[in-house]
Amino acid sequence: MASFSTALVNAGDAPISFVHKKKYLMGTVFEIVAYDNSPARASTAIDEAFQQVVLLEGMMSNYNSDSDLSRLNRTAHFHALVNFWKAVMRGERAPSPAEEERLRGCVGYERVVLLPPDRVDFRSPCVQIDLGAIGKGFAVDRAVEMLRSYGISRALVNAGGSTIYAMGSPPGQSGWVVHLRDPSHEIDPRVMMFENSVSTSEQTAPSLLGTDSAGHIIDPQKGTPVRTGVAVSAVAKTATDSDALSTTLLLVGPEKGRDLVKTIAETAAIWISREGLVEASSNGPQILLGTAMQSTAPGPNERPAN
């Protein structure tokens, strides 16, 4: 979850106002704030940006049986590893080590071949595609493109707090102040964003029925849900990149993740545990902690992102 700052200002004699809209999409609340001299234009641009997400949801959703992705995955002869653990999470079946082992052989990008101009070939009878690690990020990037096509240059696109893209900056400010996920409620990490994105990945919280419940993020090597209480936030130039990077960094952990961040320009990451332990790495953007950024965050209104 994240929060951000906005303000109403004057640019010369003409007031620049913001338009703020929300829409439930992709299983979460998408939220867009856009500044413009014309509230009507900003409103139309936001509506069209949301429509882009609607179209992509119809293509990429695993939960919509009529989506393009669901139709593609039906060519597989039996269910893949992710679907197995989703069924466990829903209480529809118990974990089976034998089936875990069998389904682990279905995992791997090398089993998916892209054939021009627009075909996909599965090289395994059980492989399926799941876009959970990049789907929202890709949708955010397309929404940003639509806003730009309407001449919008100052906006924040927020996909349920898990992926946020900052276009330009609010008038009179140097960037968008975004508060990052902090499972310890002690660190208050913040980043000043300008023409970049931040995403947060965190394993599903344990079930109230027990501590051995599965989670939605699967370790592709072990074939089981990753066990961690850490939240990882990653900053990158695009929302697709930050979405993919945060999931990757959650899987590999800070020891390997710090080195990975150093190899990618304009990225940064922070790992925060429930106990307040912090690991961080940066190849450009700075993630600040506590009150360190307060003097550079003049926005008067801080609202939680849903």
Q: Give the low-pLDDT segments.
A: 3-8, 292-306
The CA-CA distance between the termini, in Å, is 7 Å
CATH topology of the largest domain: T-fold
The CATH architecture of the largest domain would be Roll
Give a quick account of the main beta sheet: strands, pairing sense, barrel closure: 9 strands, antiparallel
Fourth-level CATH superfamily of the largest domain: ApbE-like domains
Strand content: 25-35%
Give an overview of the whole structure:
By secondary structure, this protein is of the alpha+beta class. The protein has 2 domains: 3-61 and 133-293, T-fold (Roll); 71-122, no CATH class. Helix content is 27%, strand content 29%. The strands form 4 sheets. A 9-stranded antiparallel β-sheet has the order 2-3-4-7-8-11-14-15-16, covered by helices on one side. The protein has a 5-stranded antiparallel β-sheet with strand order 17-10-9-1-18, with no helix packed on it. Helix 1 (39-60) runs antiparallel to helix 5 (135-149) and helix 5 (135-149) packs across helix 6. The longest helix is centred in the last third of the chain and has 24 residues, at 239-262. The protein is globular, with a radius of gyration of 20 Å. The protein starts with a strand and ends with a strand. Mean pLDDT is 84; it is low at 3-8 and 292-306.
List its salient traits.
306 residues; alpha+beta; T-fold; nine-stranded antiparallel sheet; five-stranded antiparallel sheet; 18 strands; 29% strand; disordered N terminus; disordered C terminus
